[in-house]
Write a structure and sequence with these properties.
Blueprint: H1 32-51, H2 54-71, E1 77-80, E2 84-89, E3 92-97, E4 100-104, E5 111-115, E6 122-128, E7 134-140, H3 146-167
Antiparallel strand pairs: 1-2, 2-3, 3-4, 5-6, 6-7
C-alpha cells in the first residue's frame, strides 16, 4: 500500500488565490521552462533595442502624443482618490487600484453601473463584461456634492461612445 506525505487535497485556483486569474489585471504567469527560453530571447531583443536609432524612439513618442490628443477630442470622465482611479474616454474604460490596472475597450463592455451610497463618500463604478464578469471600483469623493457631477460626466461619455459602438 502506498502512503503519500503531505496533503491529499488539490490546490485551489481562482482570483482569491491568484490575482493573475482575472484577465486584464496582471500579465500571465509563465512556467519556469518558458522563462529560461524567454530570458535568452529578451536579452537579444534588449540588445537590438539599444542599437536602434534614437529617431525611432522620438517617432514613437510623437505617435503616443497624437493618440492621447485624439482620445481627448470627445467627452472624458476621470475620477481618482489616493488609491483608485477610473478614466472613461474614446479608447474605453480604464480602472486602477494601487498598482493593479485593467483596461476595457468599448466592444468588451456589456454595461457600466454606478452606485452612490446613502451615507458616506464612496462612489462605485462597476464595469460588466458580456461573459458575466464584473469589475467594481470605489472612488472616495472629496464631498457628496461631487456625485452628481461625476454621474453627469460619465453619462456624457457613455452616451457618446458606448451607444455609438453598439449601433455600428
Amino acid at each position: 500500500m502506498e502512503q503519500r506525505i503531505g496533503s491529499s487535497s488539490q490546490p485551489l485556483e481562482g482570483a482569491g488565490f491568484d490575482p493573475a486569474f482575472v484577465p486584464g489585471l496582471t500579465a500571465p504567469v509563465a512556467d519556469s521552462s518558458e522563462k529560461t527560453d524567454k530570458s535568452s530571447d529578451s536579452e537579444a531583443e534588449a540588445a537590438a533595442e539599444t542599437e536602434a536609432e534614437p529617431e525611432a524612439v522620438v517617432e514613437e513618442s510623437e505617435n503616443e502624443n497624437e493618440n492621447e490628443d485624439v482620445a481627448e477630442d470627445g467627452p472624458v470622465f476621470e475620477a481618482a482618490d489616493r488609491r483608485a482611479r477610473i478614466v472613461a474616454d474614446r479608447r474605453g474604460v480604464r480602472l486602477a487600484l494601487d498598482d493593479q490596472e485593467c483596461e476595457f475597450r468599448w466592444d468588451e463592455i456589456g454595461a457600466v453601473e454606478t452606485e452612490t451610497p446613502r451615507f458616506g463618500k464612496r462612489f462605485t463604478v462597476t464595469v460588466h463584461t458580456p461573459d458575466r464578469r464584473w469589475y467594481p471600483i470605489e472612488i472616495e469623493a472629496p464631498a457628496r456634492s461631487v456625485f452628481g457631477e461625476w454621474e453627469s460626466q460619465l453619462d456624457k461619455v457613455l452616451d457618446a461612445y458606448f451607444e455609438e459602438e453598439e449601433s455600428v
